[in-house]
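To fix ideas, we reproduce below a protein record of this kind.
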Amino acid sequence: MATFLYKLGRFSFRHRLFVVLSWVALLVLAGLGASAATPPAPSSFSMPGTEAQRAFDLLGERFPEANSDGATARVVFKAPDGEQLTRPDYRAEIERAVAGLKESSTQVASVADPFSAHSVSKDGSTAYSAVSYKVGSASLTEHTKDALQETADAARDSGLAVEIGGSAVQAEEESGTEVIGVVIAALVLLITFGSLVAAGLPLITALLGVGVGVSAIAALAHTLDLGDTTSTLAMMLGLAVGIDYALFIVTRYRAELADGHEREQAAGRALGTAGSAVVFAGLTVMIALAGLSVAGIPVLTKMGLAAAGTVALAVLVALTLLPALLGIAGKRILGRRARGRGPRSHRSASTRPAVGVRWAGFVLRRPVPVLVAGVVGLGALAVPAGSLELGLPDEGSLAAETTQRKAYDMLSEGFGPGFNGPLVLVVDAKNSGDARTAAAETVVTVRKIDGVAAVGPAAFNRAGDTAVITVVPSSGPGSAQTEELVREIRGTSSEIRSATGAQALVTGQTGMEVDFSQKMNDALLPYLALVVGLAFLLLMVVFRSVLVPLKAALGFLLSVGAALGAVVAVFQWGRLADVFGVQQTGPVMSTMPIFMVGIVFGLAMDYEVFLVTRIREAYVRGESPERAVVAGFKHGARVVAAAAVIMMAVFGGFLGASEQAVKMIGFGLAVAVFLDAFVVRMAIVPAVHALLGRSAWWLPAWLGKLLPDLDVEGENLRRRLEGPARAGAGRPEAELVRG
């Protein structure tokens, strides 16, 4: 592989204008395809095999009028303290608002009067008007949205508190977080390289790769039903790994220049060594993302595959476009001082070792204390993960100042905490002798269950064989009590069937969330086993060792467990909640563990490959295990630290988001990257190598014969290039290019 990448690097360097123009043309074509494509529909969410999905599908088949895809809104009215909405002037104001909403837009399907629909709280302080639209939230015009907001503003002038919730009111998306991450990344790269050109190349290549990937997703979104959120994960990961991969190759290229190689040869050598690490690091990330299909949820599978495709693009950009840009950059890839000093062989070495070398020496002298401190510290951080509770965010998790959150709180106070998360009970009475009797019996049975605040009357479809019953829990939608209530209602299904012949299924938003959380929880261990197992085999090929991949996998489990524990401590328990701007504690988002495993695993293996390939490269050249670790840190510690700081900045930027789910993702990923890069890779890895010595590279002879020798560290390439060259000819370089 190293030889092939060496040739590819020299080809791209030599034909740089052709390569650059080809990528620019591809970006333009992808952009044109995205602009001409039909906009994606809102994400189609389904969970095959769950009771909630079966009930949802049954509603779509027999009760389509109860399964509308149109947007909805709740305009919530609350009287001043001590007063009631039945006061004539308040009632007149509410009726005026309802009438205004009906006439506000042709997209409005219906508006319910709170007094006619009996949607006034028992104490008379709170009421809501349910607004239904003919189109989905993505298709609502600005005029329609403005009319809804203007109605609320006008009603407030009468002294009422008026807030709006529902899908028609979208939470304002945070803007600028990606820009902040890119700016911080640029500063870190500038400090790392000391050259504006060298700092700019990783950003240029990463942004171009993300541009092609996201544009391709947009072009295919409608055709492949990718949904409107698929590009988010692809953009985040594409930017992250794109910067990482380019950073590693540029660092190696500058090192080759410092060793006295010509620029074209340096590009080939950089790709033949660092490029091999990039290929395998990218493969581990793609395995982790493609493995999301284990969850059995189509939208997650599509998101994972789309993000994996973007990572593949990032690898291709690093292997082709980056060498071409290195050719265009010329000597400006080095800082001004470095340009004047010449190759390393012609200048005196610094008397003071680099920070990475000094740290490696410290760990090698004290491997046991460092290893124990790292493992015990990460283990302690992981303890809260044992209390993990999963759920999905709703309007109750939004920032307290948003109108959706205020409407949510007003409804909870006026109608009870379970009002915002009602359960929908679908009674399939097609095989029952009397559908109405079956529905009535179901209502009676459910009312007896603890935790049920109210059960609404049964509503039948036109055929009279299916009923929908609304069940309001006494607990909030994201609570463990509501999840237990869902299980108890489902536990009565056999009782209802034996008594009436009908089947009762629980669905609705809350029912879907409960099933989704359970599905995510069930998929986590199989996903871990698949991803870690496949990556273990891949890393065994890369490092030709059994213990190094095992150490990499165990180190990842420590870092992700500790990061998940930190998420539970902050967002579920409320520790340091004020510091991180967490306004309300609650269950951890259901997708958080599996996304954290996938994303952090990919980045962790990046750092492992980048650092340990340098260690192995020194080892196969004849260095002792201890000196190989020092050499690996001398060349790799700086780039791993820079990459980690960049990723922490990108992910940490999401801590400023108003939506708690986004804040949680940013916090969890930033903590995980910090722990994995600076505790696992920088402390535990060298300590383990110091203790294992040569045993770290042990590989059974029979297994060595089965595994392909891909020459990831480029040792065979180096021998071909340098061995005969010392005899007096530069022909091997030319032969490799021609061959």
Q: What stands out?
A: The chain is about 65% helix and 5% strand. The mean pLDDT is 84. The domain at 71-165 is CATH 3.30.70.1430 (Alpha-Beta Plaits).
